[in-house]
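Justification of computing resources. Each target in the renewal requires a structure prediction run like the one illustrated here; the chain below, 633 residues long, is used simply to show the kind of job we budget for.
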Amino acid sequence: MPAPHLHLPPPDRVLSPRTGWTRAHWEALADRQLEALVPYATPGFAQYRLPGRTSWSGVVSDGLEGYARSFLLASFRIAGADGKADPHLIARYTQGLTTGTQRDSPEAWPALTDCSQQMVEAASIAIGLHETRPWIWDTLDSAVQERVVEWLSGFVGARTWDNNWRLFQVVSEQFLASVGAPHSRDDIERGLERIEDWYVGDGWYSDGDGRNFDYYAGWAMHLYPLLWARMAGPDGDGGRGAAYRERLARFLSTYPQFFGADGAPVHQGRSLTYRFAAVAPVWLGALADSTPLPPGLTRRLASGTARHFVERGVPDERGLLPLGWYGTHLPTTQAYSGPASPYWASKAFLGLLLPGDHPVWTEREEPLPVEEGPQYTALPAPGWLLHGTPHDGIVRLVNHGSDHNPYDGPAEDDPHYAKFAYATATAPESAAHAWARTVDNHVALLAADGTPSRRSRIHPVSCEGRRASSRHTARLPGHEGDFPVESTSLLHGPWEIRVHRVRAPEGVRVREGGYAVADVTPPHVLQGPGWALARTEEGLASAVVALYGWDEECGIAREVEANAFGPHSATPYLLASGPLAGGQPGGTRVHVTLVALTRDAVHPEALRAAVGCAVGDDGLIRITFPDGETLTA
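Resulting C-alpha cells:
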C-alpha cells in the first residue's frame, strides 16, 4: 500500500485490473513531488536546495539541478493540463527563470562552460520551455527572454563529454533555433552524427565508446533525439525522426521483458536513483507514434513501475526522492549525484503529454510478458539474456556484454556492470567494504590472502536462444601474467547453469557466488556438501549448487549496509581448491554451477542429484535437467 503521506485516488480495477492506476494517479504523484519541493526553494525560486549529500559540482550547481529537473516534471504537468494546472506552479517556475538568469542575483545560475554539470540541467530547461511555450516562454518579457537565450547560448561552440551529453547540446541549441536565437547548426549536426557511432543495432545504443549498456539507452539515447525531432518538426529533422522512431520501436519490442510482475525494473547500471525514469521510453513510444506495444501494456508497465516505488516509500514522508533505490542508499549512487539528481525521474511523467482520451489512458491494462508465461529473451547487441518466471514474477538478466569500459586502455570493474547476473528482486553488494570482497554473482580466483580477481573488461562471444558466453581476464596479486576465464550461461526456468573454464596457477582457489538477497532482518542461511542457500523472511531464496569441479566446501557471505534492497544481505558461494580440481588437459579447470533465484521452495540436495552434468572427451559439458532436456556448453 502507498505510504500514508501520499494521497492517491481510489484504484480503478476495471480500467486497470493489474495496478489500479489511472491518469489521475500520475497527476497526484506529480503534484505531491512538486509541492514537496517548495520549502527548499530559494527566495526567487531559481534553485531548490534539497537535503542530502552534495555532488562534486557543489551547492549552487545542485540548486540549479533542483530547479531544472523539477521544471521538467512541472512542464509535463502544465502542458498535459493544457495550461490549466495550478497557476502557482506556473508562477514559481516563471519566477525562477527570471531570477536564475540575473547575473547579479545571489541565486544566479552558473554559466555554461565546457563539460560543466550546468549543461545537463540546461537541456531539461530547454525541453521544459518548449513544452510549456504558450504558458511560460511566450509570457516572459523580452528582457528575460534575452537573458535565457544568453545563458543557453553558452552551448554554442562548447565542448561536452563524448557520450549522452552530446544530446544536451543538440536539444538546447534546437530550442534556441526554435525561438529565432543564434545557434550553431554544426553543433546540432555533429551531435546527431556522433550518436550514429554508438548505435549497435536492434534498437540499442552504447552510451559513448565502449560497451556501455544500461538504462541510458532508453532515458537518454532514445529520448533526446526524439525530443529534438519534436522540437525541429517534420520539416526540420532531415528525415532523422523516422529513423529514430524505427529504432525506438525495435528497442521497445523486448523492453517489457526487463520488468517484474511487481513493476520492478532489473537493477543494473548506473544512475539507478532515477528509479521510474526507466519507463520514459515506453511513454515516448506512444508520444512519437513509434511503439509496438498495445496501449494497455504501455500503461500497465509504466504504472506498475511507479506503483512499485510508491508502495516502498518513494517519495518519502517529506514527499522527496532520496538518493538511493527505495530509501537513501549512497552506494547505489555516483559521485556526480547530488540531492536533486533523483529528479531525472521526471522523465517518467512524459505520458502526461498524451491527452486524457488517448488510448494509453483509456484502454484496459494488459499483462506484462512475465505475467503470461516463462520468458527467455536473447539480446545479442548488449550481450544479455533475460529470463522471467511467472510463478514468482522475477526477471533475471544474465550479463555477458556490458562492462562500462572503453574498448582500449585501463579498465575498471563496477558492481552495477561487472556481475554475471542482475534481477528485479535483488541488487549487487555495492558498498565499498563488500565490493572489496566481491562475492555475489562473480567467479573469482583467490590470492593467498583472499583477494579476489576482478571481471573488468568483458569480451562477448555469443548470445542466442537460452545460451550466452563471454571471456574476461583475471589478474592475481602475487602472480605474474593474465589468467583467461571463459564463461557460458545456460537457462532453464528460474535456474542458470554457469560453466567456467579457468586457467590458473596450481593451488589457487576459485570461488563462485550466487545472488545477494537482502532484507530488514538477516536472511536465513543453510548449507551442506556442495551447496549453499540464503533466504529472506519473505521467502526470496538464492542458492548455488555444485555440479562439477567444486569442493564440498561452501559458505555464506553476510554483509551489513551494503545492499540497496535492505540493511542485511547474504550471498551463498562455492569453493574449489587443489592442483587442478575439475581439470582438463592443458591446465584448464572446469567449474559448473547451478544458480537459482526464486520465491519458490529450493531443495539444493535434490537439485544436485537430479540435474546431470557430464564432461565429454570433446570437452563439451552436457547438462541434463529433470524434465529430460539436455543443453551443452
